[in-house]
Amino acid sequence: MSEDYRSMWADLGLDLVAHDALLGVLGQAYQDIYLTQKNRPEGMGYFDFVMSEVHGLRIKELLDEKAAGRKVVGSYCVFVPEEIVLAANATLVGLCSGADFATEEVEKLLPRNTCALIKSSFGFKLGKVCPYFESADMIVGENTCDGKKKAYESLGGLVKNLYVMDLPQVKSGQGKALLKAEYERFKEAVEKLTSVPVTAESLKKAIETVNAKRAALHRLSSFRRAEPAPISGLDALLANQVFFYDNPARFTESVNKVCDELEKRVAKKQGVFPEGTPRILVSGCPQAVPNWKVPFIVETSGAVIVGEESCVGERGVRNLTDETGQTLEEMMEAIVDRYFKVDCAIFTPNPERLEHIKAMAAEYKADGVIHYGLQFCQPYLMESIPVERALKAGHIPTLRLETDYSTEDVGQLKTRIEAFIEQLR
Ligand code: BJ8
């Protein structure tokens, strides 16, 4: 890493020794998991570059934007509307929450039986190793699951500008009204942060920008329906993960470049794995960078992942925001409509999610579904039981996993995943 980056990280207040250790582990994991894959589309080279610079060049870009007067907003949830952030002249970034860090320190603030994702978000802050967190002018928390909701109370004591967004838990008229009121309140908060009012013009442009990102991922997903699948699940997951970090326009262009290649591969029936490789749909909790544990095990055990029913995946990008609104009010309404459709397990009841899992399994011609649940995540673990029952009743083989970010259970997971894949052949 260049000296420039080191002084940049030091200025951000990172713990350089701990950060070096993190980058070392991350680089090795990327090498072992990603760079050992065969038949990757050439366009994935861009994403390799992004990952190699995820704490370097991208942070420098954000700091340059800040120097030019733009603000940076960090978030942990797909309910935080990027359209509003962009329209107020700020950049939205996802915050690190995909690896264990500073666990001992974290467990002084959070109970041990807190999900790995929440613990990780604290670990990156307490361990001073997330340059996104330290670059952010505002951190947005959201009242989703109980774990996050209560954890933000503690996080508030660690950061200067934590903004907590309330979210509905029921898909009712009242729930939608709450979301609308909260998005209006959020808009005002971001406008106050940036001193830039959201206008019909800026919001229209922002809606188009974010829709284009989502549409590029839709295009990528469409090729994963082909048999043989032209891209690995690991690579597709990486594109979905980079969605939360990269410059939006550049991300869209880079995904579309990969898609151009995939189009040719599909025409030539060129798969990343041989024809007949069992096809898996993964459903459940989000898999944030660098949480590649389960997809790596699946794809080194003789199967290919063809879709992610997840917020880092199709649940997060499935719906586009209607672009026909002309006034600010119409566009805000369209944003509320779009986000209110997200079928996170924090909603009760949440029947749409099961329907989406079934529809995705059919669309992507999945031979089986792996339900990915993070240990102590009540919403998804609770839903996984009726989901498994319903899928099995529909003759869709299903494997329910409960795991965390450690490597302790890799052997056990591999045994269960291999047995499941065997059953699909
Ligand atoms: S919209 S899925 S990104 S809340 S894994 S912290 S649910 S205990 S992440 Fe999520 Fe928004 Fe919903 Fe999506 Fe809690 Fe579960 Fe942990 Fe989770």
Keywords:
binds Double cubane cluster, 19 helices, alpha/beta, 425 residues
Describe this structure in words.
The protein has 425 residues and is of the alpha/beta class. It contains 19 helices and 8 strands. It has helices at residues 3-12, 16-33, 44-52, 57-67, 82-87, 103-109, 116-126, 131-135, 146-155, 173-194, 200-223, 233-242, 248-267, 293-299, 314-317, 328-340, 351-363, 378-393, 410-424; strands at 71-75, 90-94, 138-142, 162-165, 279-284, 304-309, 368-374, 398-403. The strands form 2 sheets. A 4-stranded parallel β-sheet has the order 2-1-3-4, sandwiched between helices. Strands 6-5-7-8 form a 4-stranded parallel β-sheet, with helices on both faces. Helix 14 (293-299) packs across helix 19. The protein is globular and about 60 Å long. The model has no long low-confidence stretch (mean pLDDT 97). The structure holds Double cubane cluster. Double cubane cluster binds at residues 77-79, 115, 117-118, 144-145, 147-148, 285-286, 311, 342, 344, 346, 374, 377, 379-380.
Shape: globular
| Residue fraction in strands | 5-15%
Terminus-to-terminus distance:
45 Å
Order of helices and strands: HHHHEHEHHHEHEHHHHEHEHHHEHEH
The low-pLDDT segments are: none
Strand-pairing-aware structural class: alpha/beta
Neighbour order of strands in the largest sheet? 2-1-3-4
Distinct small molecules bound, one entry per kind: Double cubane cluster
Q: Would you tell me the overall average pLDDT? A: 97
The percent of residues in helical segments reads 40-55%
Q: How large is the radius of gyration? A: 21 Å
The major β-sheet equals: 4 strands, parallel
Count of distinct strands: 8
What count of helical segments does DSSP give? 19
